[in-house]
């Protein structure tokens, strides 16, 4: 399932307010500056700072 490009354009990381990158195969939105990701559950991004998961640099985009 992909994310609407218009939605992706307005979503920002709740922690640093920077842009996010979508990885469709993993169903996550990644903040490469902080090495964290936000999962997408049932097509809805879970954009809570407490729900962020570690995203190792080697898994980067």
Give an overview of the whole structure:
This protein is mainly beta and 61 residues long. It has one domain: N-terminal domain of TfIIb (Single Sheet), CATH 2.20.25. The chain contains 1 helix and 5 strands, in the order αβββββ. Strands 1, 2, 3, 4 and 5 form a 5-stranded antiparallel beta sheet that branches. A hairpin with a 4-residue loop joins strand 2 and strand 3. The longest helix is centred in the first third of the chain and has 6 residues. The protein is globular, with a radius of gyration of 10 Å. 20% of the residues are buried. Belongs to the UPF0434 family. Pfam families: Trm112p. This is UPF0434 protein CGERO_05185. InterPro entries: Trm112-like.
Give me some keywords for this one.
N-terminal domain of TfIIb; 28% strand; mainly beta; 61 residues
